[in-house]
User: Fold this.
Amino acid sequence: MADYNLNINGKSQQVQVDPTTPILWVLRDHLKLVGTKYGCGIAQCGSCTVHLGGVAVRSCSVPVSAVGSQEITTIEGLSENGDHPVQKAWLEHDVYQCGYCQAGQIMQASAFLNNNPNPSDEEIDAVMDGNICRCGTYTRIKKAIKTAANLKNA
Ligand code: FES
Ligand code: FES
Assistant:
C-alpha cells in the first residue's frame, strides 16, 4: 500500500492503495466516481477513458503510480453543469442508447477536439476507432463531434 495525493476534477484527493491499482478502480471503488465505466479491463473498448494531463487514456490500464502530479479529469469533471460543447452536441443528436460506453466516448472526443478543432471524417474515424459501442451509435457520435467542433469554434 502507498499514499497518493491525486488531483481529480480540480480537487485534491487522498487515497491509500496498492501502486499497481488501475486509475479506474481508484475512481470507482475509492472515490465513488462511477461515471467512468469498466468494459474489458485490457485497453480494448474505451469505456473507461479519462483525461490524464489533458490526454485521453484508458484508466483500466494506467496504474495509480504513473499519475504523479498530472490532473485527472473524469466525466463528472468535464463541465460544471453538463454543458461542455461535446455534451451539448451529444444531447442535440440524441446519441445515447444504453449509455454504457458514452462517458468514454465523450472523454475521447473532448480530448481530441482540444487538439484538433476542425477534424475531418477520417480523423474522427481514426481517433474514435478504439471506443466500442455495442449499441452501434457510431453515426450519431460522428455527427455530434462535428456539431461540438462548430460549437467550440463559434
Ligand atoms: S475497460 Fe478500459 S478499455 Fe475497456
Ligand atoms: S450506447 Fe450502449 S454501448 Fe454505446
About this structure: The beta strands are 2-8, 11-17, 49-52, 55-58, 72-73.
